[in-house]
Amino acid sequence: MVKIRLSRKRVPTNQAQMELDFMRPQERDRNGHLGGRSFYFFDFDDNVAYLSTPIVIFNKTTGSEKTLSSGEWARLHSNIGKSGPLADYTIDYNDETGSFRYFRDQQLSFIDKMVRRKQTFLSDIEKVLAQADYSWKAPSWNCFYHATFNKRPTSVITARGHHKDTIREGIELLVREGHLPHSPNYLSIFPVTNPEVRVAELKDPALKAGVAELKREAINQSVEEALRLYGNSPYHRFGMSDDDPKNVELITEEMKLLKRKYPQMSFFVIQTFEDSYVKTEVLETKTKNSSKQHSSSLSSQKNQLDLF
Description:
Elements: E1 2-6, E2 38-42, E3 55-59, E4 65-68, H1 70-76, E5 89-90, H2 110-114, H3 120-129, H4 141-149, E6 153-158, H5 164-176, E7 185-191, H6 195-200, H7 211-230, E8 237-242, H8 245-261, E9 266-272, E10 277-282, E11 288-289, H9 298-305
Parallel strand pairs: 1-11, 2-6, 2-8, 6-7, 8-9
Antiparallel strand pairs: 1-10, 3-4, 3-5, 9-10
C-alpha cells in the first residue's frame, strides 16, 4: 500500500469555488483510452458535507439525552459506555426514538405533509445551503464535484438509514442550488443502516452487523456492479473516501481482498480529516508514506482530484 498524507440552478455565493469555472472542460477518464474507468465511492457526512444532524446518547441512570455531532461520534463512539466523559452513557438503536432517529426517515403524518415537513436529511441540507459554502463543504467536496462534473460512476455509501430516494433528493438540492453542475452518474446508493437495504442487499438478515462491516459489503457489491455495467477491465480504478477510522480500517481490508481478486486493477482508500487527508493505494506487498499538506491548499486540491 502507498500512503500520502495531504494535509434549478443558482450561482454559489463563494466566487472562489472551482465549480464557477464555466469554461472548465470535461476531463477524459485517466485510463479511458485503455478501456478502464475510474469509480468514486463516497461517505457523505463530514466527508462530502458537514451537516448538523445530531446523534443522541442517553444517560444510563437518568435517561437524559446528550447530542453529539457526527464528527464527535466518529472520534468518541468507541468509548461510549466504557471510559472517559461518556462512560455513563449508552446507545439506543430504536429507529423511532433512539440514538440515530434523525438519521432515519420518519413516518410523516397527513398534517406533517400539509405543513411541508421534510425528512431530516433534506431539512439539514437546506439549513447548510443558507450558510457560506466554505462552512459546510467537507474535505472530499472537490473530489465529489470532480467526479460529478466528469460523469464518473459514483457511489454514495453512507451510515445513514434513510431511503435511497431521500439521499438522491438531498443531493438534488445541491444541484438545484448551483453547487453541482448536474446529478451524479450514480453507480449505487447504499444507506447501509436502512433495514430494507441491510436485509435485501447487504446480507445482514439479523440486523446485527456494524456500520463498518456494512460499508465493507457495500463496497464489494459496488465493485461487482461496476464490472457488470462497465466490463471487466484490468485498467479500472476504484477509490473510497471516509472520515471514520473504524470504517477506514475495514474498508482497507475489503480493498485488500478486492486487490487479490483483481490484481491488475487499482484500489485506493482516502481517510479525510478536518484539514487534511491520507491517501492509501492498496498494493499486494508494501506501503509507502509521502508528503503532508493541508487539504485547503491549491496543490492538495489538485492532488485530491487525481486520487483515483
